[in-house]
Task: inverse folding
């Protein structure tokens, strides 16, 4: 196997981009989901509540980002420094201290999304531990749903698409790393893999939600049932969740690139059982 696609999502639930290579840190891909849109109470917002979030493009600049929208132009946001105000924000069950971004960024996003929102920045790599049921002491994650990386395979997507009247693209599932496995669902049995120079543990199957029914660029919903309905018939967790992809935790830092070889270090029984 080898790496065939790599994706970065600088702002949670805004548009992501394919990249030729990426620096992997132990809490995830460098620059991936380090920013998040929240309401005035600090509650995180996603495509689930606001499909229009997919219409906002993001360019990663290293020290900041550029937000772009077809009707609202662009807005540069610099990463807030240590002197910037801290505020508590909520992502799922976690309360996380985040740096408040320039209020102008919140105003720009509010005009597009039609409600008052703010932009916050994750600057402390030890701020949010991974769920100890699936991670180890010293495992951390930024504003991703729960784990540093999401790994998917082309074989699994091909299998799903072979059962769909209208095939879907991998971008529907918002992965970080896509591998060119030929068979369907081999990732369910992986325990440890090496991607280029980076070793990573497969932590937990990724349960899917309504976001997969929306076009990743427009936010439109061509069919509110698909691909979830078909995926639910093909690939479910024993406890009921509809699964596509596996959450992963890196053991070390390193740069991965498209074309990098992938080695299965340890495998076992399916983690869907």
Result:
């Amino acid at each position: 196997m080898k790496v065939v696609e790599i994706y970065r999502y600088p702002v949670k639930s805004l548009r992501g981009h394919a990249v030729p290579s990426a620096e992997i840190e132990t809490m995830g891909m460098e620059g991936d989901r380090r920013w998040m849109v929240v309401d005035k109470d600090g509650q995180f917002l996603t495509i689930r509540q606001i499909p229009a979030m997919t219409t906002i493009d993001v360019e990663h600049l290293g020290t900041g980002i550029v937000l772009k929208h077809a009707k609202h132009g662009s807005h540069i946001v610099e990463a807030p420094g240590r002197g910037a105000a801290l505020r508590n924000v909520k992502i799922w069950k976690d309360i996380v201290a985040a740096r408040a971004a320039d209020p102008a960024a919140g105003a720009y996003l509010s005009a597009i999304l039609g409600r008052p929102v703010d932009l916050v920045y994750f600057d402390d790599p030890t701020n949010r531990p991974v769920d100890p049921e699936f991670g180890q002491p010293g495992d951390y994650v930024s504003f991703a749903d729960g784990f540093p990386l999401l790994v998917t395979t082309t074989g699994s997507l091909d299998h799903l698409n072979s059962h769909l009247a209208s095939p879907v693209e991998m971008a529907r599932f918002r992965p970080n790393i896509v591998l060119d496995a030929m068979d369907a669902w081999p990732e369910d049995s992986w325990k440890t893999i090496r991607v280029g120079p980076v070793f990573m543990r497969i932590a937990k199957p990724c349960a899917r939600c309504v976001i997969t029914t929306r076009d990743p660029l427009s936010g439109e919903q061509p069919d509110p049932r698909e691909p979830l309905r078909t995926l639910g018939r093909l690939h479910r967790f024993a406890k009921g969740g509809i699964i596509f992809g596996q959450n992963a935790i890196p053991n070390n830092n390193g740069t991965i690139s498209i074309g990098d070889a992938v080695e299965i270090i340890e495998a076992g029984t399916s983690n869907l059982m």
Summary: The CA atoms of residues 34 and 142 lie 6 Å apart.
